[in-house]
Amino acid sequence: MRLPIAALALPVAVQAANYSGPLRPQVHFSPPSDFMNDPNGLFYDAKRDLYHLYYQWNPYELIAGNQHWGHATSRDLYHWTNHPPAISPSNADEYIFSGSAVLDRNNTSGFFPDQDDGVVAIYTLDTAEAQTQNIAYSTDGGYTFTKYTHNPVIDINSTEFRDPQVTWHAESEQWLMTVAYSADKVIGFYTSPDLRDWTHASNFSRADLRGEQFECPNLVKFAADKHVLFISVNPGAPLGGSGTYYLVGNFNGTHFHPETANFTLYEFSKDNYASQWYTDLPDRSSPISIGWASNWDYAEEVPTGELEDWRSSMSVPRQHSLTQVQGVWTVTRSPYDLSAVQGRRLPNHNHTDGVSVDFSSVQSKAIYFEIDISGLPADPAGEVRFHFSSPAGDHLDGGVVLDTGLFWIDRAGTQLYTAANNTDFTPLSNTSVAVDGGLAFAGVIDRSVLEVFADDGTQSATVSYFPSAPLDRLAVGARGLSDGANVGLAAWGLDSGWVV
Ligand SMILES: *[C@@H]1O[C@H](CO)[C@@H](O)[C@H](O)[C@H]1NC(C)=O
Ligand SMILES: *[C@@H]1O[C@H](CO)[C@@H](O)[C@H](O)[C@H]1NC(C)=O
Ligand SMILES: *[C@@H]1O[C@H](CO)[C@@H](O)[C@H](O)[C@H]1NC(C)=O
Ligand SMILES: *[C@@H]1O[C@H](CO)[C@@H](O)[C@H](O)[C@H]1NC(C)=O
Ligand SMILES: *[C@@H]1O[C@H](CO)[C@@H](O)[C@H](O)[C@H]1NC(C)=O
Ligand SMILES: *[C@@H]1O[C@H](CO)[C@@H](O)[C@H](O)[C@H]1NC(C)=O
Ligand SMILES: *[C@@H]1O[C@H](CO)[C@@H](O)[C@H](O)[C@H]1NC(C)=O
Ligand SMILES: *[C@@H]1O[C@H](CO)[C@@H](O)[C@H](O)[C@H]1NC(C)=O
Ligand SMILES: *[C@@H]1O[C@H](CO)[C@@H](O)[C@H](O)[C@H]1NC(C)=O
Ligand SMILES: *[C@@H]1O[C@H](CO)[C@@H](O)[C@H](O)[C@H]1NC(C)=O
């Protein structure tokens, strides 16, 4: 939807946003109001010790449209401060689509006469005629941007060409752009000495991958000279709607060479899309991402809109590494250092059939939890279940069947929005985890989003859910376990990242 821009005074009192609604995540980023989708322009400013998060934002409506770059900053990736939109359309018939941002320390662009901390944003300008790659620069650390006079910097006369991710390729001392020819299901690599003049370097094509269009590619450098190519696809991802794949390989300055035959699904659930990775992190930092915790199948109709005037949150920030699982390079992930919001350990309550924690007294209704199953024989039997519940009768369930390793999460019991509202809001997510004498998994639950990390961080799920009252109790129960088996639960309250 396009609204005439002249009719729109920007309504955004971003500082006065209301984060107190019962569905509002407290340790996940969500927009001050209205509709948010992809994260954009993630960069870390070491000089000011500040993480920037831009995002696709429609400041006027609860559905997608009128894309601006919304903006927030944080010192720890959990406490966020909202700012006015950083990049807005100049005309009524254009959108500021997804992209990235980099610090141009060496003034390669020439935009920054007297500084070593200039910021260049690289984004797709979307109009009815074309999608082109454009740049804008900021001399104030990333709060306000000036569009480059000679935009676009890449125009191939296509309406399906978007989501540039730019990083500095130190080995070849040039900028590298990873961008999607969306409808062709091709990833293009371009290089540039100055962020203005771009040369096509190579194409990487995977037409056989399930999903209709490629979006938001990110080529991420890991340790051990490895690169991982993340590609989001929509619609038609394997679990329905939108989803993300990754492929491990290496990049030689012009070409990406995969090291494994297959793309791997980043998650075994539906609600993690368009992840972007921070640029300009300190040298020894592991790669950190933030993803969009929703799915195009239902993002524009979930009940937070009517009830609380906002739609969609981001995932928690995640740190990543590479590990070999049965000889195959695999990406691990876990929540980025939670210490900035981690509160007190919650007391366990023992029951004949398990253990529980009551977190009704945790003001945020957000907790971090770890479940550890140990002492299993080589041929384990039985199952372990976890069950979140609310005083209003909502529940969110999951568990693991120990003989097969089937790990599942079921959101059918949260009552405000279910598969009866939209059949694409599928209740079940599942995967298969290794059970080797035991297993452990951990998660963050935060009012309307659950993230679970299993199998030593090689598997994860992001699950949005909508209870009629906040879930505030976690019970873990076991059935049919052999003698000597033990199920441990540890949970900590999380402090809100918002001033509410
Ligand atoms: C904030 O939102 C909640 C839930 O939507 C509402 O109950 C509350 O009145 C709002 N507070 C203010 C100050 O508007
Ligand atoms: C800046 O210049 C230094 C010295 O030439 C080089 O090592 C570094 O890679 C450059 N970085 C960027 C982002 O331009
Ligand atoms: C940055 O580049 C511009 C254009 O080339 C130049 O005028 C300016 O002197 C440069 N500044 C620095 C500090 O290198
Ligand atoms: C751009 O593409 C359109 C649609 O395919 C075509 O009609 C037009 O001639 C093209 N313009 C140029 C400059 O190539
Ligand atoms: C790269 O892929 C795009 C999209 O399919 C195509 O238009 C372009 O011609 C390709 N470039 C080269 C050099 O093959
Ligand atoms: C990068 O890979 C391409 C394709 O395999 C090859 O043609 C090119 O020579 C390689 N470049 C370098 C610097 O090794
Ligand atoms: C990997 O891809 C090949 C060929 O497309 C396919 O035969 C094989 O089953 C795939 N393996 C996995 C683990 O998905
Ligand atoms: C979901 O369905 C229920 C039952 O029909 C209805 O009351 C509710 O308004 C629907 N919610 C949304 C967000 O569509
Ligand atoms: C609960 O059970 C655990 C392990 O079985 C035990 O260590 C703990 O002391 C028990 N707590 C209470 C309050 O009984
Ligand atoms: C696991 O999920 C897949 C994909 O959604 C589904 O096809 C399969 O039936 C599920 N398996 C079980 C045992 O629930």
TrEMBL record:
Domain of life according to the entry: Eukaryota
InterPro entries noted in UniProt: ConA-like_dom_sf (IPR013320), Glyco_hydro_32 (IPR001362), Glyco_hydro_32_AS (IPR018053), Glyco_hydro_32_C (IPR013189), Glyco_hydro_32_N (IPR013148), Glyco_hydro_beta-prop_sf (IPR023296)
Keywords of this entry: Glycosidase, Hydrolase, Signal
Cross-referenced Pfam families: Glyco_hydro_32C, Glyco_hydro_32N
Domain Glycosyl hydrolase family 32 N-terminal residues, every copy: 28-324
Residues in Glycosyl hydrolase family 32 C-terminal domain copies: 359-476
GO-annotated molecular function: sucrose alpha-glucosidase activity
This protein's GO CC annotations: fungal-type vacuole
Keyword Repeat: no
GO annotation, biological process: sucrose catabolic process
Signal peptide span: 1-16
Similarity comment: Belongs to the glycosyl hydrolase 32 family.
Protein name stated in the entry: Beta-fructofuranosidase
Species: Aspergillus heteromorphus CBS 117.55
Lineage: Eukaryota, Fungi, Dikarya, Ascomycota, Pezizomycotina
